[in-house]
User: Fold these one by one.
Assistant:
Number 1:
Amino acid sequence: MPVICAAIGCNNKFVKGSDIRFYRFPLSKPQLSSKWVSSLGLKNFVPTPNTCLCSEHFRADCFRDYNGKQFLREDAVPTLYTHGHEGTRTNHCFSYVQISSLLFLTLFFKVGLNT
């Protein structure tokens, strides 16, 4: 499953060797996770265990340095959004059954129209 940033308008995705890091929503900390969701400004958004935000949405003081590596502080809240972030994000992941159904219907109607 590709790692992409959940922020609206952000097209960052994981690329090996990139300086951009990705952080999963802190679902085990409901209050902090709620702050992350609120910061996105999205209506009806429910993060999954795989939902991530990239490092570009966190201020420099949200990180701590340890042995030359940057780590996200445990209480960090994303606040940097260069793109408009108001709106509604829908779940764009489809199950295997949904994809199979869509393919079947597409093929069925295509064949039906040609005969």
Number 2:
Amino acid sequence: MKPIPCYICEEHHEAFLAWHHAIFTGAIEPGPRSLLHVDWHADMRCPQLDISVHDASRSLRAAHDITYGELGIASFLIPAAFLGIFSNIGWLHPQAASNGEISRQYVRSLREEGRHFIVCQDADPWEGLTKPWEDRAYFQSRVLSLSGAWDPDLPVLLDIDLDFFPAASTLAANGRLKSPARNLSGFSRTATIF
């Protein structure tokens, strides 16, 4: 069995850097992917960047600079979808009563600069005004419930934010995360990127 790359990040937007590290080192194979985003929050705000997000695809140092200088904990998924890191997002929300409908969307970049973004539904009211917004990436998203099924039919990146879990059930009295003993031999060692 091939080891599963595992990255542990202190801040959630550091996943953007971890994904780029995995791409640059070959831990993530090329091609379309899905993201299972396990989180209390959607983290799908559109950031306004001073540095082009296109630079992240050119070097790990640029991905680092964008992660720490431009992105925040609520605004890292849209740039990643824009770069094609994944094209399918399943957002597992702890209070979702049932799976939501699949939303087909795309993210556009103003003047192909990769700095200013807007997310549009498939039926785009600005379709006739596409000249300044031609740089786009298509993706679909769906809110998922704990009881719902999700079959993305693509390789999956798993992204877990611990705020998904209620504090009462995951933290011991001493404030440490409960972790049952498990065989973790299927996971590769975690990597320090910088």
